[in-house]
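Minutes, project check-in

Agenda point 3 was the complex the collaborators sent over. CS summarized: three entities, 294 residues total, and the question is how they sit relative to each other. Sequences were read into the notes so everyone works from the same version.
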Amino acid sequence: MNKENLWGPWRTFGKSHHFSHVSLRETLQGGQSFDWKSLSDYHWRGKIGDVALECRWEKNLVQWRKVRIQKLKSLQVEKYFFLDQGYQNAIDELPWRSDPVLRKCISKLRGLRILRQPLDQTLFYFLLSSAKSIPQIQSIGDAVCKKYGKEIAPEIYSFPGWERLAQVSEAELRSLKLGYRAKYVAQTARLIANQDNGLEGIGDLPYRDAKKELLRLPGVGEKIADCVLLFGGNFLEAFPMDTWIEKSLEKRYALKGWKSDNKIHFARIHFGKSAGLAQQFLFSAERLGILDKK
DNA sequence: CTCCAGGAGATAT
DNA sequence: ATATCTCCTGGA
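CS then shared the predicted structure for the full assembly.
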């Protein structure tokens, strides 16, 4: 790879991004995406689809640049980072006016976003996520991308796609340390490759139908389906219920003793149609331990 | 050494 | 319906 002149010029997000350093870092590396690696605490390298990108925090500005010869429009970057008015609208729909817990999360993590990632790749990473920590998911995901994808920038490999993964054996995936998840990936890949239009169209279905489609795939249960829909399908109503959020709801909303199904029901009613965005604020706030401080 | 992670699927009640 | 066990791997 030609290292000279690899990166194009830095471009700057509009003023209304509202990110803080913390909320930007949390957006990129807080567990919704596994594409971003830090070069420093203020500088990340990652990808959007098959295009390699860098992103940095520079004196309250957020800047990005891409590999010069790769194609990506500013508009696509803005869409990926949810920079449009839809973000503020979604925040406005949350019940922060009457919910002090949520108000605190939003205030402390101003600018935190749900990324609009490609659905196929999001499904892949979350199939790997069960009983794994963020660094582990990133590590085994990267191993697969490195072996079957393209190197689109130094140390950045593209997601090879389900068609390609359909040609890989479970044993080979196991050799990449996927463990029992290897079977999920291998079987899901074959199923998708044999479908007429692959995963296309899922993003256009109503939430319930899209979820039903994903639940047909081996290794995809309630939690992972909602992660894929929220982080890779632009379904802000999807509410992934992991053990962290479950504990958080018990503690912050006095739901101790409630069954999981009832907790989800509470979340949908209470947080409304952008419940997934609320989930992300809660999740990050718990992760960073900023709810117990004043 | 044992335990258990940001889960899903199979099996048994 | 709900409870329990197992599945790989790596880190505490």
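Noted in discussion: Residues 31, 129-134, 136-137, 180-181, 184, 218-224, 227, 240, 242-245, 283 of chain A lie near DNA strand B (CB under 10 Å from a C1').
Follow-up: revisit at the next meeting once the mutant set is ready.
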